């Protein structure tokens, strides 16, 4: 199951309207619809907000987004640790790009 389908399914379980979830996430209902239909991807930051709004562990969303391998899903990492790891990787890439451009 992809992340969009999972978000839709969980939203239905909670009885939450698409517009209500979109407002909580700070995105438009049409953007959320695109995510749920698999037409748009999600950012790590949006995954974190979705996890909170849908009352699930963010690792579940990372797994459905393809960012966490099935064998890693059982390992007790917190979503916050994964977010921190992605942020650190992004910062390192930005630093490397600046160093490459400088010289």
Question: What report would you give on this structure?
Answer:
- This protein has 7 helices and no strands.
- It is mainly alpha-helical.
- It has one domain (3-102): 434 Repressor (Amino-terminal Domain) (Orthogonal Bundle).
- Helix 1 packs across helix 5, helix 2 crosses helix 3 (29-36) and helix 4 (44-54) crosses helix 5 (58-64).
- The longest helix is centred in the C-terminal third of the chain and has 24 residues, at 79-102.
Keywords:
elongated, 103 residues, 72% helix, mainly alpha, single chain, 0% strand, 434 Repressor (Amino-terminal Domain), 7 helices
Rg, Å, rounded: 15 Å
Instruction: Work out the helicity level.
Output: over 70%
**What's the helix count?**
7
Task: Determine the mean pLDDT.
Answer: 85
Per-chain topology:
Elements: H1 3-14, H2 18-25, H3 29-36, H4 44-54, H5 58-64, H6 70-73, H7 79-102
Question: Nutshell version of this structure?
Answer:
This protein has 103 residues and is mainly alpha-helical.
